[in-house]
Amino acid sequence: MSRIRHLMPMLMFGVLAGCNVELPDNPVQLKNYWADQGWSSEERQWFHHAEQGTNTFGLPYEWFKALEQPELSFSEVGLFSDQNYLARMGFIPSPASLEDKVQAVKYGYQESSQAKKYSQYADKSYNEANLPVGFAVGEEWLDPATGQHWPIPGTGKNARSLGLTCAACHTGQLEYGDYRILIDGGQGMISLDKIREALGLSMAYTKYLPGRFDRFAKRVLGDADTPENRKKLEKMFSDLLDAAKEQSDLETEMIKKGAAEGFTRLDALNRIGNEVFSSQMKIKSNMSPIDGPVSFPFLWNAPWFDWVQYNSSIMQPMVRNAGEAMGVKGMVNLSNPEKTIFSSHIPMQILHEMEILLAGEKNPLEANQFGGLRSPEWKNLPLPPLNETLVVKGRELYMGNPDNGQKPLCAGCHLPPINSDEIFTAKYWQELGEGHSEKFLALKTVPVKEIGTDCKTAFGMAYRTVSTPEFIRIPNSGTVIPPFSEEQTPHDCPQPSSSGKTPADGHKITNFGIALGDVVEATKNNWYQDNNKSNDERVALDGNRPNGIRAVIDDVPVYKARPLNGVWSTAPFLHNGSIPNLYLLLSTQAERDAEASKFYLGSREFDAKYVGFKYRAEGGPHLSDVELLRNTKGLFLLNTKLPGNRNTGHLFTDDKIAGRIGPKLSEEERFAIIEFLKSL
After folding, report:
1. What is the pTM of this model?
2. Strand pairing category for 171-176 and 160-164
3. Residue whose C-alpha is closest to residue 335's, from 480, 144, 192, 157
4. Residue 212, pLDDT score
5. Cβ neighbours of residue 674 closer than 8 Å, sequence gap 6 or more
6. Domain residue ranges of the chain, discontinuous segments joined by +
7. Which residue, of 238, 246, 453, 601, is most buried by count of CB atoms within 10 Å of its CB?
């Protein structure tokens, strides 16, 4: 038996030798430069690391910091938490403290010209853990469904939680010349696939490679590193690894049935649904395929939109933000009726403060300008100067010109620019719900079949159902979206084989979106009650609007069009990231298929002419003077022919086909519109 035990690491070494995570090389050394978007350095760092009660990785902070990188070696290797290593997965390095001015400047921090001189966040450090943007260390790990902490054997202490915040997915970066330009509220460049894969392999190496668990235990236990405590830790580690493998196998099965995500994309809605209704509710049948990946949306001005999400499905900011926290494992009791159902440790007050930092304190309609987080301005960044002649031509194409019969190509859907006087006229603003007098910017929505873009995200929310037990109080339980007519349904979004599942005894089948809205609302209200929030305080925390959830508008799934300020910094384009640059977004279908039917995601090399990230495509690109990527190692090859990844719709073509929104544009017209978009 002893001999077999000693042979096991060697046998597993042979198995693990065939496992590896291919990552891009370390990012090139550039000058970091945060765009001036109206936040002070302190506000920025707080937003990057404010905890949201999440346990994203399923293991505590102390364990995460003790793991080594999944490099196949019998000797000590670098730590998994090394910021340079995590940067290879798209995460942005962040200073441990702003007090060291040299280090702060190294990470790109400089004072905003319009930020408050004195801030409530000043003189504090929010990243003592020395982790990238979007990582937050929370309080002691506590599972509200079991009441259990996560003890560190022999220390008398409990481990802390570690999770991702919204900043991980909504902070952008692009590389141009000597600079890495960093953008708050932008489109994240991360790959959660890569970090999940690497973390799982790191844990397997820790268990099976000789010497690695010993080093792990010493880091976790410190002075309490005794044989007895190490044995307890080893049991905890093995149990977690077994549970993690079971969960990983289930997730892998869901990905195989759908579409892989890769860099810059995530099937956020389905993943939130899987976490809430399957993992936390402990109902495996509620797992859904990952088939509607979307690019991480940019955040500026979004707090003042009437509805958010690509499919215009969520109204209230607190429900949106709490739902996002639950989706990255903000723990809620949804499975144990013997304890308080909907109890959680999600800090709703912090979520509200983050929303106010994004929104600003004044309604834009009253201030006649948008406050809070501003979109990045091309002209104030180390980018080529704008061609003002082209900007003028592009504005006319974007806005239209009645004097010469020019209809607007963009403003009809995307509204006038937010820095124009016209956007503040009453017709673009509306109240949301009885008793809520504040007005919000009303965004236009377009039926999926009319806009012609990939239908999986919008139709997935309409079709998906979940099963919930009686103790999960859902006011709208049993509601299911009726089937759509053939005229409403794109060819690659066929009707589901049945209208719903057969519920278990005591369960109800409900549309996923409706059920999610009710569950998050109940979780939020439970926190309000536990924290003695008055009705007026609740209205303020809710952003002065009701909990609106919808999967369809006028009986059909839709996508929304939003203002395009700062859009130049948010490639790849369309909701699913299927088009690499603005030039191809203004193109015909034939051009897209010839230039980028398959292309790599994950590059940060910015193309200032065609406006997007430089890319390498199979069989292309053929656009004149487009530079190819220097390296595709570890990047994600997006196949736009697969459902969920389609690059169809939003077309400028003379062909009378679905998804046509304007005539075929000349090269001069395209570059004029692009130049105007750079100016927004």
Report:
1. 0.93
2. unpaired
3. 144
4. 97
5. 394, 568, 582, 583, 586, 610, 611
6. 2-256
7. 453
